[in-house]
Amino acid sequence: MSIYGMPEFNLDRRSFLGGAAALAASSMTPWRVLGGEAGKPNSVFNGVRIGCITYSYRGEISSAEDTLKALIEDGLSEVELMDGPIRSFAGIAGGGRGRPQPESTDEQRAAQLARCAELRKMYNDAGVNIHVHKIPFGQSDEAIDFNFQVAEALGCIGVTLERSEAMAKKLAPFADKHKIWVAFHNHTDNYPVLDKADPILAYSPYIGFNFDVGHYFAGTKGKSPLPVLEKYHDRIVSLHLKDRTVDGGNVPWGEGGTPIKEILQLMRREKWTFPADVEVEYKIPEGSSAVAEVGKCVRYCKEALACAPVSD
Questions:
Q1: What is the rounded CA–CA span in Å between residue 181 and residue 207?
Q2: Which of 35, 110, 165, 178 is deepest in the core (most CB within 10 A)?
């Protein structure tokens, strides 16, 4: 059965932009602090939601406030938020190289979740939706449950992590409880199965993919990601967009073989609503910056979607 048939999922997907607009109308204070009210970012191009994983800004930007400024500068209204900005803003210890947060008291967790709600409001007031977050899961049931509570406080529909069938089995009951997606991210050697039903999806209707199309292209030595999208579109929570070569190199967009334009145009034709997130993983050119390179990729997406054929 398609996940789109689940009432909770339809509500979450359809309410993303509307919910952000309603929150923005309630209070403009954070937006004023960040520098103006003249306009808000809108990176929904011909119905396709373009966002960014904040890993793209690594090494240049770390705080939640500066990350938001970068997203606004790049014209982005969607984001996959990495754990660094969340932890620093909410006072959640741990992190770095995928380390989970240490155990906290009930009082500490309550305060941290309240700060996550403030973070969501700051971003929503500025016109940016946090559709998924990436904080590594802890070991205990309490720590795992807390990660889903953070997702709820941030307004996320999912949490991303690296693909693992063992983790799919472990996290499935929590995903079912919270009705929050667990979105597994693939690398070059561990990607969604095409010739049969992917085994990790059987554990829960809230298990899905954070599908990295560049890693797939490189890992399969040049196979198109389009068949994966066509087969699993109702279990894809978000995409990572990057350009790679057949021999595995990360390159500026348009210099590799990943069919980014074709992917975006397919999303437009099929009216798929999961976001496609820019991930800048190539070396930043001399004289440029991560923010500038993300902006180039956003323009690439906009231009690709402007020329996409309209479906009948």
A1: 6
A2: 178
